[in-house]
Amino acid sequence: MHVIVSKKDLVPVLERCQGVADRKSTMPVLGNVLLEVGGPNELKLSATDLILAVRGRVNARVEQGGSVAVGARDLIERVRNMPDGEIGIATTANAATTLRAVGSARRFTLQGIPGEEFPSLPQPDKDAKAQTLEASVLATLISGTHFSISNDETRPHLSSALFESEGEWVRMVTTDGHRLSKTEVRVEGRQTAGNMLIPLKGVNELRRLCDEVAGKADGAAELRIVQAGPNAYFELPGFQFSVKLVDAQFPPYQQVIPQEYAHRVKVPRLATAEALNAVSVAASDRTGGVKLSLSKGKLRFESESPESGEGFDELAVDYAGPDLTVGFNARYFLDVLRAIADDEVELGLGGELDPAVIRPAAPNARQNYVAVIMPMRI
After folding, report:
1. Alpha helices of 33-119 — where are they, by DSSP H?
2. Beta carbons of 1 and 96 less than 8 angstroms apart
3. Which of 181, 173, 13 is nearest to 89 (CA)?
4. Could you tell me which of 344, 331, 343 has the C-alpha nearest to residue 373?
5. What Rg, from alpha-carbon coordinates, does the chain have?
6. 76 phi and psi, to 5 degrees?
7. Considering only CA atoms, which of 281, 265, 269, 271 is closest in space to residue 331?
8. Residue 282 burial (CB < 10 Å; 0-12/13-18/19+)?
9. Angle at the Cα of 140 (from 190 to 213), degrees rounded to 5?
């Protein structure tokens, strides 16, 4: 194989591949990125950890076809240390790979493996049904829910995000058993229905992809989404990301969200987050527990621990109902307050053993958000 490519074009695709390549796997081949000539003017790059897979392509001048798999981290380090401009990539019969800066003496040599030894990546059927979604909408869904996905991989129904399409609405729901987050966005004209469970690794990679798209001039780029068999595919021009979906039953989240609560109060989001963050400094390191107390005209936060002493703060609020004190994990509350962009949020509380419901105070015809946090004894 012998191709000539632009460093500027190659680096972004290599970075995506390195994010997926699994150096810690018991299969060393998964730490590689596959380079293969895809046509007279195209170099394809691929990486997988057998759950996630990425494919990208860059324009290239092809001198000779072929393929090779090279260590992802080693390759990108050497490409980054090339001068700006064009890079020649050439391989020999034993998969030795040479990178040479065009017009410069700088070069690197890497030992690769034949491209035929790289695992085959899944591909959707050509007739598989596809849907489109703006990357900014997917970014909104993920930013409002990613923090409440469980890190416990032994509970796959919780270490994943539920992505649903229903009529004109798309939504994402996550829960770790202690809290739940739901974001839904209205997309006019959309009629696709379906759902999928995306594992945490896939959600994190999609989040990075959406952030990257948002930073470009075409931040309104649309993703083409295909669900085929056990996999889902998210495609942008010149790039495809696939993820093996979770085969499990997501909890019935509608039953978890309280529809009625005895105590309701609107609070300023930033001031509440600041007070809660300050008081949490004195909370127990083990539980992060903070007491939230409502009384006439006041919202109080209190924390104490044998090691850290006590913390206290209060805010003036428009509340005239009965007194109530409930314990919560401060970090869970702060995650939600950071996810909401509105200036004011509404807290809905039941009794001292009932969950708290947090949502933006002002209704929005295009977007809905709600979070549920279970109480804790302090």
Report:
1. 72-80
2. no
3. 13
4. 331
5. 25
6. -70, -35
7. 281
8. middle
9. 95
pTM to 2 decimal places: 0.91
Q: To which residue do tokens 């460093």 refer?
A: 7
Q: Tell me how far apart the alpha carbons of residues 39 and 91 are, in angstroms, rounded to a whole number.
A: 17
Strand partners for 328: 290
Strand-pair partners of 114: 68
Chain centre to alpha carbon of residue 308? 34
8 Å CB contact between 133 and 223: yes
Strand duo 222-228 + 169-175: pairing: unpaired
- The amino acid occupying position 269 is R
Tokens of 332: 């869970």
**Six-digit token string for 58:** 């860059």
Torsion, CA 87, CA 45, CA 91, CA 84, rounded to 10: 10
Where do the domains of the chain lie, and which CATH numbers do they carry?
A: 2-117 (3.10.150.10), 130-253 (3.10.150.10), 257-373 (3.10.150.10)
For 35, how many CA atoms within 13 A lie in the half-sphere containing its CB? 34
Each residue's pLDDT, cut to its tens digit, for the chain (378 residues) gives 999 999 999 999 999 999 899 878 889 999 999 999 988 899 999 999 999 999 999 999 999 999 999 999 999 999 999 999 999 999 998 999 999 999 999 999 999 999 999 999 999 888 888 889 999 999 999 999 999 999 998 999 999 999 999 889 999 999 999 999 999 999 988 767 789 999 999 999 999 888 888 766 555 688 999 999 899 999 988 899 999 999 999 999 999 999 888 999 999 999 999 999 999 999 987 788 999 999 999 999 999 888 879 999 999 999 999 999 999 999 999 999 999 999 999 999 998 999 999 999 999 999 999 999 999 987
Q: Which of 372, 373, 345, 349 is nearest to 359 (CA)?
A: 345
Amino acid, single-letter form, for residue 320 = A
- Which residues in 194-220 are b (16+ Cβ under 10 Å) and which e? eebbbbbbbbbbbeebbebbeeeeeee
